[in-house]
Amino acid sequence: MPRTPTNSKAGLILSLGSSAFAVIRSVRQIRRTRGEQDGLTTANALAGLLPLVTSALIILRRLRGRSRQQA
Question: Is 71 helix (H, G, I), strand (E, B) or coil?
């Protein structure tokens, strides 16, 4: 029987922090590649950034849902 994730508040905050850190790293990579005038690597970095932003937004939605349920 598969277990469902508990989505604890601490776990969600930890996930959000790691997603934020990954977004910061990706933005730095984009800035570096733009400075090198390398269009293909810049496009690759931008494509890698999109799932990170999406996951961070999903985590924020879960945190907001938890706070609304408690109110």
Answer: coil
Beta carbons of 3 and 25 less than 8 angstroms apart: no
Give residue for tokens 């959000």: 16
Task: Flag whether the pTM goes above 0.70.
Answer: no
Rg (CA), the chain: 16
Half-sphere exposure of 46 (CA within 13 A, CB side): 9
Give the tens place of pLDDT for each residue, 42-58: 888 889 889 988 888 88
The pair phi, psi for residue 4, each rounded to 5°, is: -90, 145
Cβ-contact 16, 42 below 8 angstroms: no
